[in-house]
Amino acid sequence: MGLFKPSRLAHAHCHVPCGIYDPTFAINAAETVAKMVEQLLAMEVPSPDASSAEKIKFHHDLERRVVNKEEHAKTCKYELLDVLWTQYFKPEHLERWPDLHEKFHRAGHLCTQNMQNIDAALAQELLDLTKEIGEIFAASKS
Question: What is the pTM of this model?
Answer without folding.
Answer: 0.86
